[in-house]
Amino acid sequence: MDIKKEIRALLQSKFGGVQLSDARVEKLVKQLDGKVTTEDELSQKMEALNELLPFSDIAKEDDRQRTLTAELEKLKSKKPVTEEKKEEEEKGEGGEEIPSWAKALIDGNKAVTEKLAALEGQKIVNDRKSAILAKLKDADEAYANKVVRDFSRMSFQDDASFEEYLGDVEADFTAHAQAQAESKLGKDAPYFGTGAGGKNKEASKEELDAVMDTITI
Fold first, then answer.
1. How far apart are CA 161 and CA 145, in angstroms?
2. Based on the domain organization, do 66 and 114 belong to the same domain?
3. pLDDT over threshold 60, residue 193
4. What is the largest distance, in Å, between two alpha-carbon atoms of the chain?
């Protein structure tokens, strides 16, 4: 499946003919590559992303960014007659480094970019938390809550480092469950009482006969 081609097709058929920039589409391709294998899966992922931040809003920001880039290129292409004129054009009116309209576009683009980054970051956290809870589906609530609290205080350089941590979570829980099972077995084992001073009390003949009768019945 050509993911890029299918993304373009879905934007046209399901999301109002949105025209995203090549950079945005490439980012979507990178984000979804390896996570979808069918058109239906891709469609579901696209719908989820659209709910977080509509593609139409992203397209508007792309349009503003293209306009800003074009205007800045025009400014760069101007050839001042003198060095003084060149300095004035670079600073703009009122001594500003860039025109006010350009600054507004830059600030708007920065706000959308930060919002996208925050949403994507939260989605990654939620997905990782779900992966941890899946490994702890058989754990008691107290144990699972402790692992999740520890996870919330951690940061990971990349997906590979998280996958390594997830393996540790699974291994730790396996060891914990084994220790719990062995502890319960030890408590359930029969034993003879102790006498005064904590010393083992020797079973009487009657007690031994009673045990043997139970075994042979």
1. 21
2. yes
3. no
4. 119
Q: Within a domain: residue 199?
A: no
Residue 201 resides in a domain: no
pTM tops 0.70: no
Distance (Å, whole) CA 43 – CA 12:
12
Whether residues 29 and 8 share a domain: the answer is: yes
CB 156 within 8 A of CB 162: yes
- Going by the DSSP 8-state scheme, the letter that residue 15 receives in this structure is S
Judge whether residue 97 has pLDDT over 70: no
Residue 202 lies in a domain: no
In 3D space, the residue among 52, 49, 13 whose CA is nearest the CA of residue 30 turns out to be: 49
Position 147, amino acid: V
**Is there a domain that residue 143 lies in?**
yes
**For residues 92 and 41, what is the distance between their CA atoms, to the nearest angstrom?**
50
Pairwise CA distance, residues 139 & 190, whole Å: 28
Share of the chain above pLDDT 90, in %: 6
Domain hosting residue 29, numbered range: 1-52
Do residues 64 and 38 both lie within one domain? no
CA distance linking residue 134 with residue 122, whole number of Å: 18
| Number of structural domains in the chain | 3
CA geometry: angle at 40 spanning 35 and 8, to 5°?
A: 80
